[in-house]
## 1
Amino acid sequence: MIIIGSDHAGYKLKELIKNYLNEIGEKYVDVGTDSEESCDYPIFAEKAAKKVLSTENTKGILVCGSGIGVSIAANKIKGIRAALCMNSELAEMSRRHNDANILCLGARYIDFETAKKIIKIFLSTEFEGGRHERRVQEIKDIEQNY
């Protein structure tokens, strides 16, 4: 299951991504927004992050103009490791080394073809564990302190 959300700047790309998810047989839940009318990205980042945490075996995709805002907002939620990825290599490393559970995309900086490649890699790459497990645990420990 994929939880997907965006603000107004990411709305068009989010809609294209939903079509792509349908094509590849991935189920998703769209937490909004539902138009290009101006809205606040933290609202949708929080909705998606909470849903990712409350649904087993779930990842998220968030889209805003730059990807930065949704990344910052989602990462405020304990248990979320949201990664802004501008290419498939970053998507692979975010999963392999950081066990990222939300992919953040910048609609003003990547095209749909690039987004599809990034999403494919993000969804298909497993966490390596090993030495990276310790580092992810250190992130969790930091969360416990704040």
## 2
Amino acid sequence: MHTAHIRDKFNLHWHKGVIILLLILSSNQSFGQKNFDINLPNYDEKWIHYGFLLAVHRSYFSMDYSEKFMSGSMDSLTSIQPQPRVGFDLGFIVNMRLGQFFDFRVTPKVGFYEYNLEFNYNDGSQINQLIESTVVEFPLLFKYKSIRWNNFKVYFIGGLNPAIQASGNKDDENERKLQTDGFNLSGEFGFGFDIYFPLFKFAPEIRFSKGLLNLLQEDKFGYSDGMESLHTNVITLYLNFE
């Protein structure tokens, strides 16, 4: 599909992303050995800030086999294997200061997701069930931040992310065989770096998300018979601008 081709362009080598973050940290530390101006010196005293975010993510399902599959009554099906896919997110940031070390953040965003399940059969054949969806998310997060060191801070972030599917497999139930629920709730945890520039603050962040709800629904084609549950797993690299 055309949408899938667009998302493939956002494919990210995660080890490169980590290396970039380490380089940013190292360069900022080296600058700390020199005398230079403190950017945005009163930034953290304001009780509310706004911004926007861009992100790329790697998403996949975790699943449990059903008793029907484990009992061997599904002779033709040998395994179901989740396959990671890549997508991207766009959103806004509303950050409220709770104290010296704590903030509360609301980051409404739109995520473009793909999840793929590979069904393997004993005759050697495979069937891929690709679930594409556009999701409206409303993460509610608490941010614990370190003391500012020159133009740099480290922080940890965590909270809950309710999400509603705006479009996807529910739009073509007769064509797409595997069905999932349109509402999800995820627990999220991550870390990042606040880097202060003269006109704005930039914060690269890595966040891990685990779905708390079982999204599996029965379908008339029998693809759900081999599974007991489906949960989302997402690893996201955020680029926050405030």
